[in-house]
Amino acid sequence: MFSTFFKLANSFNTHPNQLIAVNRDYNYDKHCFGKLSKTNVFIGENNSGKSRFLRTLYSSDFYAMTDDAMNMVYSNFDEKFVYGPYVVVPESPIEKFNDLYKKVDASKTHYSDSEYRFFGELQRSAKLIDLTNKFYFPILRGVKDYKRALNKKLRDFLQRVQTIQNKESINHYISLLNLQSDGWEGFDIYREIINQEYFKDDKNIKNHILTGGSLYSEIKKLLLGDEGQRCIFSDFQSFLKDNFFSDFDKFQLIPNETEKVVFVNIGRDEKPIFDWGDGTQQLIVMLFYMYVNKDKEGMMFFIEEPEMYLHPGVLRKFIEVINGEIFKHHQYFITTHSNIILDTSADTDINMSIFKFKKVKDKKKNKDKDFLIEQCNNGDVSLLNELGVRNSSLFLSNCSIWVEGITDRLYLKHYLKLYCDKYHSQKPYRENIEYTFIEFGGCNIIHYNFDNNDDANTINAKYISNKLFLIVDNDNTKEGTKKAKRKEIYREQLKDNFYELPVVEIENLITLDTLKKVLILQNPEQREIIEQTLIGKKSFKKQRLGKFIDELFPNKDIKQYAAESGTIKNKLNFCNSVIDVLDDYDKLSDDAKLLTEKLYMFIETNNKD
Question: In terms of Cα–Cα distance, which of 369, 390, 387 is closest to 378?
Fold first, then answer.
């Protein structure tokens, strides 16, 4: 996988030389374009230059280097040159490369042969990237029924023979005849349009523009090929079924010889590909060309807006699949207006580089360039602004867990971790992405409404997150009180997503053994007294824990734990000690396990595709 691109002002054999931007209209503020990943995403407003830049990368020859190649260039210079008194050696290979080029460019008089040596090393280490390994998916793509439309046009024309009276009508007739005689198998009107509009009708460039118009002939070629080619096609069908059509008992692609078009059989339904939805066409077209090239080294796919026609869940799956091991030789460059692609990178281990494009108003402040490119990380909130995503467009995490305070969050987060540590088959969901905690602050819950109806006197919690799980303390609430009635309302509104602790408050979920370890940890000199005192003690579920501890040690043999209300005085300090000593899920109380498993099921349910 390549980490950076660059172009040369002249060939390697010409001296002097210099690096130039991949496209002169863009200010990237680097001497090479990177740091690249397997998947590289270009985002920006309309007319920000991202698609133009993508097409430039596809259609132009440039040099590319891996991290190892860049490090090799750097290490092949002698120590005196590399570690001069004014050079700071950065950690990143990209930074090293740019730092070295700056020094070469600025030190020609001091190091007379530096430029010659530098470009000599580049020549040995860089790889020229041309059209051989590049494919382009334009926005115009999908298999359409051109044959029927144009045949109808031809028939209508022939029925009006009297119209063939001038040179224009004759030429028009001949063009239709030529199209018919050439056959329909390789006809691709989208590709012709894209090639003429963006690439000046360059036939070499056209050959690697992929819209799906020639899918029939490509599939037919595989089926009529050798055993290896037939296996590739058979494996591709299984691959599509397993990843995208697993709910159906059958998935098959059939090149229909009579119609000269691919028929698709999904389950019990078989019809021409253009009669299926645009999203289904997109998946088949894009993945077909990726799959048949999966074993070729250094393949690059340039994709315009893969989200076109795809359901967000399918788009997420598509991004995950193309970044899988089966496509390990591929590298992708994608323009997008979809936050789903960024979201997929955030909550998976997909390695993704993100570049933000802007059209500048003041070129003088942008090195006289029309466009600015900035590399961002996925946590950059400005990316959502560039995509036009507002808070009303999405919920920022997939679900929320409402708790009384900070220690509730810390306990439950730790319990979930212990659960996943024990059961390795369970996915460890990440806080603030797949779920988030909201602390409502005890009695402040009265200000929230958890119903679907608005109430001018309360805050509707479902406008904050529409998938929530509410946990409240038991507090030894007496039947018939206002608090008890509120809990009944919450239970009615949220059903299974309301949970009242079976204990006074969250601290009371720990076992007696865990309590003993915490007290010893915080009072190490009193280990013997603590152990003897706790022998034979029973449950403290319904007792204020601070008061319970202090009553066990009336002579103040250990520090005092009770606040005025009887609860733990320093809840955060106590909670941190519980987390320190509690290292095994099996050491949780039965009540704590029950709550943990309910929470995990809630998070899992709201993170399924």
Answer: 387
Strands 269-272 and 261-266 come out as antiparallel
pLDDT in tens, 307-365: 988 888 889 899 999 999 999 999 999 999 887 888 777 666 788 999 999 999 888 88
Give CA–CA dist 503/411, Å, rounded.
14
Q: Give the sign of the dihedral formed by CA 127, CA 130, CA 132, CA 138.
A: positive
Q: Do the beta carbons of residue 607 and residue 434 sit within 8 Å? A: yes
262 and 216 in contact (C-beta within 8 Å)?
yes
Can you spell out the DSSP letters for 515-574? HHHHHHHH-GGGHHHHHHHHTT----TTS-HHHHHHHH-TT-SS---B-TTSSBSSHHHH
Torsion of CA 587, 588, 591, 596, to 10 degrees: -140
Asked whether 588 and 596 are in contact (CB, 8 A), the reply is yes
* CA dihedral (545, 547, 553, 556) positive or negative: positive
Residue at token pair 């990316």 = 383
Neighbours of 469 (CB within 10 A): 22
pTM metric for this prediction: 0.67
Per DSSP, the three-state class of 33 is strand
Which residues are registered as beta bridge partners of 498? 470
